[in-house]
Specification:
This protein is an alpha+beta fold and about 400 residues long. Helices cover about 40% and strands about 25% of the residues. It folds into two domains: about 5-200, Beta-Lactamase (2-Layer Sandwich), CATH 3.30.450.40; about 200-400, 2-Layer Sandwich (Alpha-Beta Plaits). Strands 7, 8, 9, 10, 11, 12, 13 and 14 form an eight-stranded mixed sheet that branches. Strands 3-2-1-6-5-4 form a six-stranded antiparallel sheet, with helices on both faces. The relative contact order is 0.09.
Length: about 400
């Protein structure tokens, strides 16, 4: 679209349905809608009010995400609000994608149009036939290009018998250009949240996004802590190649993560083969946090038995790890150099949790707990003695679960 086309749209000189009020709404009120589903729903209503021949709208956004390839938002007349669905990696090899209009668009990055009353079974993808069966007559995909050059799209379908006019298609192209900055803001906001969730955890990442980013920013909180470490990792590093080593680490991290996140825990950091996990005491409820941490540990060790059974059958080394659990007050915040920070927990409780994990090696117990932690859980725990711990001024009584794994 040229500048003249934009002038024509905004001054009302463009024929047919009025695009100007839709663009003005999008540049003023629409851009404030923070989620794609509500934005597309509201946009569809604006287009209908303007008399646009719109039966279905769809946007496609590519994501930078460890699990998702992209997200799609679809509105269709008579079906209520727009629905957002996540598209997982691997979609480019699926039958739903291969030969589809979206593939054609992704390969050309240009406007793609299909008259749905003129389809060819030998050439056209089944999704076009499905749209035609529902009543659509014309379908167009317009590029929605972000400032970094990345290609996304706005797809519009109509059930008007004679389909779109050339002017309709031009208007939807201009609409896609105007809509792109709104979706780029949403996309960048989500990317920020994804990066925070992926590398810091959701709770910690949210605090960073809320502005807790200066060195020394933080707070004192009560929390149950988890510190776990793989056994014989140095020997495994020498014996396994990088690919097998990463496979083992990822398997270990995955089943532990599944156990702890299900009960409100958050992985603060991976330290080589070790994991530091926090269970904040919501409303000061230390008993609830400790029970969640211990239940997560039991779930993880129960899962480990299944994982190791599969690994033995595949002639892979078993995963063996030890775990220390403690509860207490920690400093939760930013530490590091002025321009390179880590959001973590520090304090005597952190130190004691790591020392408990180290004791699992010498005592032959997979899970060890501090006295204060053991007093706050429902499971039966037995004292295994008092022990000196590096950095801890007095000997500490240590407890183990009264069960075998």
């Amino acid at each position: 679209m040229t500048t003249a086309s934009l002038e024509d749209a905004l001054t009302g000189r463009m024929e047919g349905w009025a695009l100007a009020p839709v663009l003005i709404w999008l540049l003023t009120e629409g851009r404030k809608i923070p989620e794609p589903g509500p934005l597309i729903t509201a946009l569809a209503h604006q287009l209908e009010s303007a008399g646009a021949p719109v039966w279905r709208l769809r946007t496609g956004l590519r994501l930078i995400h460890p699990q998702m390839f992209g997200t799609a938002v679809i509105w269709q007349r008579g079906r209520g609000g727009a629905e957002e669905t996540q598209v997982r990696h691997g979609v480019l090899d699926s039958d739903a994608y291969l030969g589809s209009p979206i593939q054609t668009f992704n390969e050309t990055h240009r406007t793609v149009r299909y008259r749905l009353d003129r389809l060819d079974e030998a050439r056209d993808h089944r999704v076009l036939f499905e749209l035609a069966e529902q009543g659509a007559r014309d379908y167009v995909i317009q590029p929605m290009t972000f400032s970094d050059g990345s290609g996304h799209f706005l797809a519009v379908a109509t059930d008007r018998v004679d389909g779109f006019s050339d002017l309709d298609i031009s208007k939807f192209g201009l609409l896609a250009d105007t809509l792109a900055p709104c979706f780029e803001i949403i996309s960048k906001r989500r990317l920020s949240q994804t990066l925070m969730d992926t590398y810091l955890g959701h709770r910690t990442g949210q605090k960073v996004l809320e502005g807790l980013i200066q060195r020394g920013d933080g707070e004192a909180i009560n929390a149950a802590l988890w510190y776990s470490d793989l056994r014989n990792f140095t020997a495994l590093t020498d014996a396994l190649g990088p690919e097998r080593l990463f496979d083992m680490l990822n398997a270990y991290f995955e089943f532990v993560s599944s156990a702890v996140t299900a009960r409100g825990g958050e992985i603060l950091s991976f330290i080589g083969d070790a994991m530091l996990i926090i269970f904040p005491c919501n409303d000061g409820n230390e008993r609830e946090a400790c029970q969640a941490a211990l239940d997560s540990a039991i779930d993880a060790f129960d899962s480990l038995a299944t994982v190791n059974f599969s690994r033995r059958r595949a002639n892979q080394p078993e995963i063996v790890f030890g775990l220390g659990l403690d509860v207490g007050k920690v400093a939760y915040g930013n530490v590091g150099a002025p321009d390179r920070l880590a959001f973590t927990v520090i304090g005597p409780t952190v130190n004691r949790t790591a020392r408990l994990e180290s004791l699992t090696k010498t005592l032959g117990k997979p899970i060890l707990m501090s006295d204060s932690f053991a007093k706050r859980v429902n499971h039966l725990a037995t004292s295994v003695g008092r022990f000196e711990m590096k950095g801890i001024p007095a000997p500490q009584e240590v407890f183990a679960l009264h069960r075998e794994f």
